[in-house]
Amino acid sequence: MKFYSKEHEWVEITGGVATIGISSYAANELGDVTFVELPETGTQFEQGEAMLVVESVKAAEDVFAPVSGKVIEVNEELVDNPEIVNESPEEEGWFCRLEGADEAELDNLMVHEDYRQYIEEVLATNEEEGDEEDDDEG
Amino acid sequence: MGSMKLLDTPLKQAHLSLGARMVPFAGWNMPLHYGPGIIKEHRHTREGASLFDTCHMGEFRVFGTGAAALLDGLLARAVSDQAIGSCRYNFLLTEEGGVRDDLLVYRLGTEEFYLVVNAATRGADADWLQQKIHPAVSLSDESSRTAKLDLQGPRSAEILMGLGFGQERLPRYYQWCRIELIGEQILLSRTGYTGELGYEFYLPWEKATVLWEHLLKEEGVQAAGLGARDTLRLEMGFPLYGHELDIDTTPLEAGFDSLISGDHRSFVGSRCLERPPRKRLVGLLLQGRRAARRQDPVRTLDGRAVGKVTSGSYAPSLDRAVALAYIVGEKKPELGTALLVGGAAKPLEAVVTGLPFYGGGAAKGPGQGEADS
Questions:
Q1: Which of A87, A112, A128, B22 is the most buried (most CB within 10 A)?
Q2: B37 vs A35: CB contact, 8 Å cut-off?
Q3: How much is the pLDDT for A129?
Q4: Average pLDDT of the residues in A21-35
């Protein structure tokens, strides 16, 4: 079962190993992913810590560890084919796997239905406030 | 701009019905991309034909006795030696030679010109030109009633021929003509901002949707947004006002010395020709797909800060990242010079490269010759 963070990461823990990626919503917001800076195997991350960078044509975004743990595997497919993140963000487009995740940390995350509602609230707020200004002038 | 309400082009509903992602740009609500996304729209423009909404751009008509002589004194490149029927890339400068705007000048008649300016600078340009104009010359800001669409890509000419225009009826590179399409008189020029063979259409604001639908109906034509427009122009090394060009930058510094330094004229800003450039625009080819971004510092390999990135992105046609950057000093670094871009902790490796980054564009070809760029 997947759990989601407010920063739009997902995590799924099976057999003590946490698989991490970004949500379909986040991948769609980013647009065409052109580069993923994967973390080094063996690196320890705490929940909420910036763990990698995902770049699209227009922007570079930090991805935060939805749970704590040590990186034991990264998705090497993304090195040459970062577009997988757009094509299958919540399956094939996973970023890395962590060991030593504490399931108690999942309490800080949302189940799918709660996340879906959270997105709706985010969208409603954006609608009211208008989108952020672009600084381009041309 | 801040909280000012965004302006809509006449094509807003057309964009929304195509699933566009809309973003603010220069005070306008513009499509960043449609369903296919920036990379696919970029590739389609290089291989087929894409349609862009550029209604946000400004259009002025300057006319009356003495208009040519007046513009000669106000623009960095002469207009009086420009043939009627031609277009020319040009600049409005400050007294110091800083770029107020870059623009395209169409010579419509002996004393009649069409100036196509950037959206963000339109108001300031109009105010400044009005102050400089003398009573026999008029400036009419036609921006709010003029729609503009760009059809860009190697298949653009055959698409127009499919609509009944023989090759002899189509303008050649950097020329314009009037055509009748959708029952309207349309000003059509063979110009663009992508490096590809392509055309720009100027027509009444309220007819934009009809032309948009008419062109999109043609097989192989797809809509493309500002995102692709930006990666396409970046691959060509074309400047974007507010990035590579601004009031603190001269055209010489931006690399246009060959366009303006030759004819020893006097014009507003011509004193910049007497001064050595303080910085030079260079192309940077990065080692991988990871992009440098605007404002990223540029350093030498031994860590000396030498400049700043003005535009940077993944370049879809090259499958690697490229950037434009200003390097301080009078002389350009040699091609092949290795530099570091971005944060000191994890800089990206880059090499100074000639422009354009992408050499496969078909803007000037095939077989129609260069007229007057």
A1: B22
A2: no
A3: 64
A4: 96
The tokens for B309 are: 């990135």
The tens digit of pLDDT for each residue in B137-161 reads 999 999 999 999 999 999 999 999 9
Assign B274 to helix, strand or coil: helix
- Across the interface, whether the CB atoms of B119 and A138 are under 8 A apart is answered yes
**What helix, strand, coil percent values describe chain B, rounded to 5?**
20, 35, 45
pLDDT at B369 (0 to 100) = 39
DSSP state of A60: E
Sequence-distant (6+) residues with CB within 8 A of B194 are B45, B150, B152, B153, B229, B232, B233, B236, B361, B363
- Does the complex come out with an ipTM higher than 0.90? no
pLDDT digits (tens, 9 = 90+) for B317-332: 999 999 999 999 999 9
Nearest to B233 by CA among B123, B308, B107, B317: B317
Are the C-beta atoms of residues B129 and B60 closer than 8 Å to each other?
yes
Given a contact cutoff of 8 angstroms between Cβ atoms, the answer to whether A97 and A19 are in contact is yes
CA-closest candidate to residue A134, choices B133, B5, B27, B277: B27
Q: Is the pLDDT of residue A46 over 90?
A: yes
Taking a C-beta distance cutoff of 8 angstroms, is the pair B151, B229 a contact?
no
Cis peptide before B366 (omega within 30 of 0): yes
Q: Do B38 and A57 touch (CB under 8 A)?
A: yes
Q: Which is it for the CA torsion A111, A113, A118, A123, positive or negative?
A: positive
Tracing tokens 């510094």 back to the chain, one arrives at B253
Question: Model confidence over B81-132: pLDDT tens digits?
Answer: 999 999 999 999 999 999 999 999 999 999 999 999 999 999 999 999 999 9
**3-state SS string for A89-133:** CCCCCCCEEEECCCHHHHHHCECHHHHHHHHHHHHHHHHHHCCCC
Residue A21 DSSP class? E
SS3 B365: coil
Task: Please check whether residue B293 touches A, CB under 8 A.
Answer: yes
Q: With contact defined as beta carbons under 8 Å apart, do B85 and B175 qualify?
A: yes
Q: Which of A57, A83, A132 has its CB closest to that of B231?
A: A57
Q: How far is CA B248 from CA B56, B75, B268, in A?
A: 24, 17, 15
Q: How far is CA B166 from CA B51, B138, B160, B162, B172, in A?
A: 21, 36, 8, 9, 12
Q: Are B200 and B239 in contact (CB under 8 A)?
A: no
Who among B3, B22, B227 is closest to A57 (CB)? B227
By C-alpha distance, which of B331, B343, B316 is closest to B41?
Answer: B316
Element (H, E) at B214: helix B208-216
Residue B266, token pair as written in the block = 């006097």
Yes or no, beta carbons of B26 and A136 under 8 Å apart: yes
